[in-house]
Amino acid sequence: MGKLKFAPYVFGLAAAVVFGTNPIGVQAAPVTTTKFDVSFGDLDIQGKIIYTATEEVASPFYKKGISTAEDCVMIRKEPSADSEAVGKLYFGAGFEVLEEAGDWIHIQSGSCEGYVSAEYVVTGKKAEEVAKNTDAVNSYAKIITDGVEIKAEASDDAAVIATAGNEEILEVLAVIPESDWTKVNVDGVEGYVKNQAVEVGVAYDSAVSMEEEAQREAEAARQQAAAQQTAGTETEQTEAQEEQTEAAVEQTEAQEEQTEAAVEQTEAQEEQTEAPEEQTEAPEEQTEAPEEQTQEAEEPSLYIEEVSETVWATDAVNVREAADTSSSRVGGLGKGESITRTGICENGWSRVDYNGTTAYIHGDYLTTTEPVEEEPVYSEPSSNSGLGQQIVDYARQFLGNPYVYGGTSLTNGTDCSGFVQSIYAHFGYSLPRTCTTQSVCGRGVSVDELQPGDLVIYSSYGEIQHIAIYSGNGNTIHASNWDTGIIETSLSYSGDIYCCRRIVD
Question: Using alpha carbons only, how large is the chain's radius of gyration in Å?
Answer without folding.
Answer: 33
